Amino acid sequence: MPGSEEQESATSQPHSSSKVKKQPLSWAIPEELGIPPDPLRLRLDFHHQAVEMTFFEGETVTSKIVSAMDVAHALASELSFGSGLLPPGTIWWRNTRSGTVVALYVEKHIRQVALQTNIKKAPRRYKIPMPGLIFLCQPGIPPWVFAVKNKPKKETDIVYRAPLANIHANGRSCAGTHKYPTRLEDMVESFFTSFFSATADLHNRSKQFPENVVHLWEFLNGKKKYPLADLVDHGTISDLLNMGMD
Fold it and tell me: Among 43, 83, 100, 243, which is disulfide-ready with 54 (CB 3.0 to 4.6 Å)?
C-alpha cells in the first residue's frame, strides 16, 4: 500500500484517541416497535494514500492507519469460492471485472466450416485441419479464440492468431446474429457450427496468405494436417492470463 514508514508502524498503534459523544444510527422503522438504535462500531475512511480505521467503544473513539490489502483480506475471509464442475479441456479459470472466464483447450482437429458470402446463396463449405486452439469463454458471450502449436505447459508458451474468419485482431470473435450458449461445454461446437463471413478482419492470420485467411481455407480444404509454421504470433500464455476481458 502507498504510504510512509510512519504509516506502516501505525497499523499496530492507535494514532488518536478521544472522548466523543456519537449519535446512534437511527432506524427507518416505526418507533412503536421498540427496536433500539444500532450503535456505530467501526468506520473505514479511504484517503488517496491511506486507509483509516476508526473504532467506536461507548464514548471513546480510536483510529489508526491500516493496510487496504489487510482490509480486503479480512472482508474476503467470509466468502467461499468454487469453480463447480469444469468443462472437459479446461486449462484455467479466473475471475475478472466482467465475470468468470474459463480457458478451454481444443486439440488439433479437422473441422467443417461454412462461409456465408451471400444470403441469397448457399454457404461455401470447407473441411480443413485446425491447429490446437484456446477458447476464453463466458456464458452466452462470444469467445476469444487463439491458436497454439501444443497444449500449453508454461506461461511463456507462444500463442498465435487463430486462422479463422470473424475474429478481431485482439482475439475476440464477432458473433453477428449468432446466439452463444450459457453452457460453456457447448461453446466450441456452437462456434464452429455458426456461419463465418468474409466481412470481418481476414488479415494477418496466415504467413502464406496474409491478405485473406479464406485463401488459406481454400488451400487446406481436404488436407489432413495443419502447417504449424504458417501460424502468426500473437503473444504468450501469460498475456492471455492477464488480459482485460472488457
Answer: 43
Torsion of CA 67, 70, 75, 79, to 10 degrees: 150
pTM: 0.71
CB 105 within 8 A of CB 151: yes
CA distances from 156 to 101, 129, 152, 241 (A): 20, 25, 9, 11
Provide the residue range defining the domain that includes 26: 5-76
Same domain, 100 and 148: yes
Is residue 5 predicted with pLDDT exceeding 70? Answer: no
Rg (CA), the chain: 28
- Residues of the chain with pLDDT > 70, as a percent, come to 86
Question: Model confidence over 111-145: pLDDT tens digits?
Answer: 999 998 888 889 999 999 999 999 999 999 999 99
**Cell 479437422, located at residue:** 110
Q: CA 121 to CA 162: how far, in whole Å?
A: 27
Please tell me which residue, 211 or 39, carries the higher pLDDT value.
Answer: 211
- Paired strand residues for 144: 136, 172
**CA torsion angle 223 225 231 236 (round to 10):** 150
Per-residue pLDDT tens digits for 158-188: 999 999 998 999 999 988 788 999 999 999 9
| Cell matching residue 241 | 492470463
Q: Give the DSSP letter of residue 167.
A: B
Cα–Cα distance for residue pair 104/185, rounded to 1 Å: 9
- Type of residue at 15: H
Any domain includes 144: yes
